[in-house]
Structures are given as structure tokens and as C-alpha cells.
Amino acid sequence: MVKTVTEAINQNSLAIDEMEAIDIVSLMLEEEDHIREGIKKSLTTIAEAVELIVDRWQHGARVFVIGAGTSGRIGVLDAVELGPTFSIDPDRWIAFVAGGKNAMWEPLEQHEDNTSDIVQELQHHNFNENDVLIALSASGSTPYSVAALTHAKEKQAASISISCNQQTLSTKLSDVGIELIVGPEVIRGSTRLKAGTAQKIAINMISTATMVKLGKVYQNEMIDMQLINKKLVKRAESMLMQLTSITEKEAQALMDETNHDVKLSLIMAKTGCNKNEAAQYLAKANNHVKKAIQLYEMG
Fold this sequence. Notes:
Helices cover 52% and strands 10% of the residues. The protein is α/β, with parallel strands linked by helices.
């Protein structure tokens, strides 16, 4: 029988109900060390997940992130930030939590046993062999997540699972199974703690590294963010000035000329080419600014 780490008893916290507040929070901080260790051991599989998504994405794939309870909320939290940060179409990176949107605000954990809702949601979105499914489940055996992974397998879609136990059913059903072994929680079975933190770090790594590989970052700047207010427009202009040493007036002129397209503005500032040429180089470089600039320099 496979040992269930997420339900094990933490020997270090057996007397937590007798501790002073400072001792409780100190113990919790010490337990956080296991998160880094667990993630470090999973870096190879996390990177495999990134490469899988990037490959599929370039052929039009959508990414569906699903989970129940804390795991589902973490998936939603990460997904909703991708639009403003990287200008991702919300129809291409979609997150579901068991119980629906209300489960973000209410404790609807009873829905984790519902295997039909998620299949119906995926069918409603015409989930198919071209897509990618990411299933988050601390235990690795949550029926809601397992049903989604089973459906992905039936559809011959790519699948990734993130769990916090060893040799889980989720891993067996996945193309890439990420198992973040962070040890038992200080409160037995409360996976909103170390397991939740580990899952959040892992999904942040996957989405961020994917966006970097897709060319949505130049150096370490968000060059594909949505400029939806004056503050962000100013940030983009400041970014151009910092990256190219042009003046504020020149940055504003470029942004006006490109209709606030940071990528085109950056290429134009770096190379001196016009907007049409910048767009051509960017297209040839598959939307990677640095590669587009290198193509220009190569002549």
C-alpha cells in the first residue's frame, strides 16, 4: 500500500495545542523548509511540464487547470493573473474549481467527489486532443481531478498532474506527474498549508516559465502586459527608456506610433527599423523580441 504523506501524523507538532503563539508560528516556519526540498526534487518534471505546454501551445493548444478546494482555488488564482501580466486570451488558459465560481468564496469541498461536473465542463469547452490539462490535487486521488485526467486520457489530450503524495493515481493517469513531497502538515490533513504552498509555487513556475519560453518576457521585463490604465502605460514607457536609453519623449512617440505595442516599440528602439520591419522580424522570430533583434543584426 502506498504511504499517504498528506494524511500522515507530524511528530513535530504533536504538542502544538500546548504551545505559545511564537512557538506555533516558529514551528510552522521550520516546516516550510520541506517545501523547498520537495520542489527541488521535482524541478525536472516541472520543466517537462513547461516544455510540453510550450510545444502544444505553439500548435494552438488551450490549457485547462482544474482542482477542488484549495488546489482548485490556487489554479484559478494563477490563471486569472496571466491575462494582465502576459496578455493571454482567457479562452486559452482556463481554470475550474469544483463547485464552480462560488467555491472561490465558499467552502464547497463536498464537490470534490463530483466526477460528472468537470467532464461536462470540459465537453462544453470542446476539450480535445490538441489541448493540455493540468490537475491539481494534494492527495493525488481526488475524484474530481481523477475524472478530469481520465477524460483527458480518453481524448488523447496532454495531461499534467501536481500532487503531494507518492505514486498517485493522478500521476499514473498523466503524461507528466509532478509529486511534491513536502511531508505531513503541522495540522494533520490540512493541505491548505505546506501542500497548498507547494502547489502554488509549482503552478507559478509552470505558467511563468511557459510565458518566458513563448517570448512574453524580455530580459526580466513584462513586455506583453496589458496596458489597461495610465499607470501601466507609464510603466511601459519607463521600461522602454530603461532598456534602450531613449528619452521619455521618444518612448512616448514610439508607443503612439505602435498603438502601445511594447514589443514593436522595443524592436524599433533597439534597431532603428520602422514599424512594418519590426513586425516582420517579430513574426519570423515567433514573437520573441530578443530573437527578432538578433535576426535584424544578422542582416
